[in-house]
Amino acid sequence: MATLSASLLPLLFIARISGLIVASLVILWALAFQSSFLPPSSSQEDLVYAVLHPLLMVIGFIIISGEAILVHRWLPGSRHFKKSVHLCLQGVALASGIFGIWIKFHGQDGVVANFYSLHSWMGLICVSLFGAQVLLFNPLYL
Length: 142
Description:
With 142 residues, this protein is mostly helical. It is built from 4 helices and no strands. It has a single domain, classed as Four Helix Bundle (Hemerythrin (Met), subunit A), CATH 1.20.120.
């Protein structure tokens, strides 16, 4: 059983603090500067859609998948248990990414308007490749 060495504790701490800072900044940006990404006449429903997309993509897709990567270093237990937790966290991250894309499509612009930028295409490709990785390379069977 591999234990967490003392030299990796500061790195793990920095990774988690960085994740919390990023999540806090996204929440602050989404709530405080809502006029930067919404028209002035937006409804409360559009505000929810506009805030949920970045929150789900950053907190769910990036931070949770990062925790899934780190789970092999900090979680005690058997290899099978660690792989099970890793798969569950990757599944939550994938579901968050899919739901984040679905939320963006339900905004006021609709589906087609969201495919005019490189950001939207790269995001869709990233979530698709991540989903293929989770579904095709299931760590429980390796």
